[in-house]
Specification:
mainly beta; 127 residues; 1 helix; globular; 7 strands; 7% helix
Length: 127
């Protein structure tokens, strides 16, 4: 039996091919820029981690658009920026929580289309 510690959160799945999906973040009216392009880093049923050049605020409500021609995917999800981390002067990573849990079937489509990796993420600390 494997010795795994329960972390209390659902597993995240790393992007296998970020080029296969276009991630757009639509901000509320009045927030500029209103549409922000982002790169997919990982995803779970509860949220998404993205990287962008735009500075977003923690607590900001967004419409997260995931589009892929190859997968015939056009998904619009509402989410909230829960954390942000500045990686460079003009580069940020964000953790966004979905307002509604993503159905397993939808997450499965991301695996079938090769957007998300089926390999478990690399350990981030001592085991």
């Amino acid at each position: 039996m494997r010795n795994q510690q329960f972390s209390g959160r659902r597993p995240r799945h790393e992007a296998a091919s970020a080029e296969e999906v276009v991630v757009g973040l639509e901000r509320a009216e009045g927030d500029l820029p209103q549409f922000v392009k982002a790169d997919l880093l990982d995803m779970s049923r509860l949220g998404i981690r993205v990287r962008s050049e735009a500075a977003l605020a923690e607590g900001e409500v967004l419409t997260i658009r995931l589009q892929s021609e190859a997968a015939a995917l056009d998904l619009h999800l509402t989410g909230v920026v829960r954390w942000r981390k500045q990686e460079a002067i003009d580069r940020w990573s964000y953790g966004c929580q979905f307002m509604e849990e993503l159905p397993l079937e939808t997450l499965g489509e991301f695996f079938l289309c090769g957007i998300l990796s089926v390999q478990p993420p690399a350990p981030s600390g001592p085991t």
